[in-house]
Amino acid sequence: MNKIIFTFSCLLMMIFSLLSLSVGAVSISIPDLWYSLLQKDTSFSFIVWEYRLPRVVISILSGFGLAVSGVILQSLVRNPLASPDVIGLTKGAGFFAALVIFLFPSSPSYVLPAAALTGAFLVFILLLLLSKRLTLSPDAFALVGIAIGAVFQSGIQYLLVKYPADINMTLLWLSGSLWGRGWSEVFSLLPWILILLPVAWWQYPKLNVFQLGDEYSQTLGLDIIRQRFWLLLLSVSLAGVSVASVGSIGFIGLIAPHIARKLVGGRHQLLIPLAAIIGANLMLIGDSIGRIIIVPREVPVGIMTAIIGAPYFVYLLRREHKRKG
User: H or E element: which one contains 229?
Assistant: First the structure.
């Protein structure tokens, strides 16, 4: 059964990738698309190779990173509502990106993702300091993250009010968009994902143990504080590099782990790779739909994932309330 689920998920990723390559302000038929991919001298080759193919690759890579980051967070915090955007990582990244856009508009292109990554790691440091070196309960850790995210969100709103003339670029980045992304962004993100994803999968025995609770984890010989620190750092790194490349895209790290958990259960050796594929599929379909709703304009993928994820988040809140009530 698991093989069927993985095969079907990979098949969907291929279909959604072809759809993303085909749709947009200029529609490309499947025969023309195949020919453009094989021969670079067709009328559609430039569009496919320079605009749409890098978007597809970035969608997949960032979907991988955000989804796996969400898997790690939910397992460590033991809270189904935990995700990179919920505990403030994307808010911190967004605030520092907004600072660069507003205060240093002429800075080189690499400064913006570097600032976003810095913001994500600053949130991580604040989480460590305010949660007393990770010794608080998982619920308290999640609440601290929500509070930090609210503070950075307030900072973003202040910058938007103070610098209204430069608001367009900031809103585009904060909403999460693949517009204008090219091969330079692909090659910036690819090495991180190729390194961090295998590292995340190799940690599946520890993540399986963490799900049993702190007392059982200690009984089994796991150094809780140290391992939680490194796993959280891994989660922050995955989310940080993804947000730095595509902007503040929310709900991927929340939805993808839940869907994967319902399909294959809580064993992380299966949960991590399936959640990564589902995260990529959500990014691909969100980007594709966003490009065909109001042609020739496009709706940022972050808005599309929010439309999908917000109702699911409400559903999870109600389910958790009923379970605890």
Answer: helix 224-246
Give dist(CA 51, CA 150) in Å, integer. 35
Work out the angle at residue 290's Cα, subtended by the Cα atoms of residues 187 and 157, and round it to the nearest 5 degrees: 80
- Concatenate the DSSP letters of all residues of 230-267 into one string: HHHHHHHHHHHHHHHHH----SHHHHHHHHHHHHH-S-
- Contact 215/222 with Cβ under 8 angstroms? no
Give the dihedral sign, CA 248/250/254/259: negative
Q: pTM to 2 decimals?
A: 0.89
Question: Coil, strand or helix: which one is 63?
Answer: helix
Question: Domain locations in the chain?
Answer: 2-324
Choose the CATH number for 2-324 among 1.10.3470.10, 3.20.20.450, 3.40.50.300, 3.40.640.10: 1.10.3470.10
Sign of CA dihedral 266, 269, 270, 272: positive
CA distance 46 to 242: 26
Give the residue carrying structure tokens 């070196």: 133
User: If we measure between CA atoms, which residue out of 56, 52, 84, 64 comes closest to residue 194?
Assistant: 64
pLDDT, tens digit (0-9, with 9 covering 90-100), for 283-307: 999 999 998 888 778 888 888 888 8
Tokens 């698309």 map to which residue?
33
What is the spatial distance between Cα 123 and Cα 271, in angstroms, rounded to a whole number? 26
Give yes or no for a contact between 309 and 279, defined as CB atoms under 8 angstroms apart: no
CA atoms within 13 A on the CB side of 109: 7
Q: Can you give the pLDDT at residue 116?
A: 84
* 322 close to 304: Cβ distance less than 8 angstroms: no
Distance CA 136, CA 122 (A): 19
Q: DSSP label at 166?
A: G
Rounded to whole angstroms, the Cα distance separating 276 from 191 reads 16
